[in-house]
Write a structure and sequence with these properties.
By secondary structure, the chain is α/β, with parallel strands linked by helices. Helices cover 39% and strands 13% of the residues. The chain has a 4-stranded parallel beta sheet. The chain has a 3-stranded parallel beta sheet with strand order 1-4-5, covered by helices on one side. Strand 8, helix 8 and strand 9 form a beta-alpha-beta unit. It starts with 31 loop residues before the first strand and ends with a helix.
């Protein structure tokens, strides 16, 4: 097998990428977005931005970032796969706040926030109502399996900071449906979440695991719509004793399956997309579009397709 061609890499002289249009009609309305760094130095096996991609993390200095922020920008969002790992992030946040601006960040690592509480403090001063971090797996066993360095003690420290700085809620992102995930992993998550909710109200942002191309977990299967929904149901039931201090905010397992089919597909997935959109874009349209493809051209998906079509999900 031939080696893959080198991934395209922008010159450092072109960094940071930044907003050229600020619109009140966009998702992050009236916010000037700018990169604080590009890439990541960590090695999480599920992520396309892991350190093996283009040499890892490339930093942009606070001085260069600030030089591009226009005078009229009242809100500044710092973008990056691992922006909270920027060694000068607290200094940058402080300088933006001192200039009278509100701030935002794209990604917070729980271990970094735990070790540098000034990040949470500055974000709160800069207008944040929700402190958001990631666990990425329901149990310590599975976090270890995907090379995620987050520990329960890191998230506990984040909850304590959320309480100290009077955040409205602590949001914790994670994936369900990882390879070899068992009900015991979900029960571990329930127990920990109940403990966490006693420190500060929490919301679990749950997304089904979707394996991506060119990652160590590329060949992992999609867990299936019904198994993921079953684990979400167990999780919701287990958090009822929290008296509303722990809630589950899941994304759709059905649409995660569509994402999986697209993520693992080639040109034929594009043809299915055209057909599904032309037929209205409903979930049943996507199922039909994938089912109509030549099975010889989509063998990597066959098991997942049969699971969904066969279960009539």
């Amino acid at each position: 097998m031939n080696d893959l061609p080198q991934i395209a890499k922008a010159s450092d002289t072109l960094l940071p990428a930044r907003s050229h249009i600020i619109s009140p009609d966009s998702e992050l309305k009236n916010m000037f977005l700018i990169e604080g760094e590009r890439g990541c130095h960590r090695s999480c096996t599920f992520c396309v931005m892991r350190r093996s991609t283009n040499g890892g993390m490339r930093l942009v200095t606070p001085e260069r970032i600030l030089s591009f922020v226009p005078e009229h920008a009242k809100r500044v969002g710092l973008v990056g796969a691992a922006i909270s790992d920027h060694p000068k992030l607290p200094n940058l946040l402080s300088r933006l706040i001192e200039s009278g601006r509100e701030i935002g960040v794209s990604s917070l690592r729980a271990d970094r926030v735990a070790r540098k509480p000034e990040i949470a403090r500055l974000l709160r001063i800069g207008g944040y109502q929700t402190l958001t971090v990631a666990s990425d797996a329901p149990s310590q066993r599975l976090r270890k399996e995907i090379s995620k360095g987050t520990l329960e003690k890191h998230i506990i420290d984040c909850a304590k900071q959320a309480a100290e700085y009077k955040y409205r809620i602590l949001k914790v992102y994670m994936m369900l449906g990882l390879p070899d995930e068992q009900e015991e992993d979900i029960h571990e998550l329930i127990k920990f979440s109940l403990e966490l909710s006693k420190i500060h109200p929490i919301a679990l942002g749950v997304a089904p695991f979707v394996p991506k191309k060119n990652t160590p977990m590329d060949s992992s299967p999609f867990a299936g719509i019904k198994p993921v929904e079953h684990h979400i149901k167990i999780l919701k039931k287990g958090l009822r004793p929290s008296k509303g201090r722990a809630e589950v905010r899941p994304t759709s397992a059905k649409w995660a399956w569509v994402e999986y089919m697209l993520a693992q597909g080639g040109p034929e997935a594009g043809l299915a997309t055209v057909q599904a959109v032309n037929n209205g874009g409903s979930f049943s349209s996507w199922k039909k579009a994938f089912k109509n493809l030549d099975p010889n051209r989509m063998s990597p998906w066959r098991r997942s397709l049969n699971l969904v079509i066969g279960n009539k999900s």
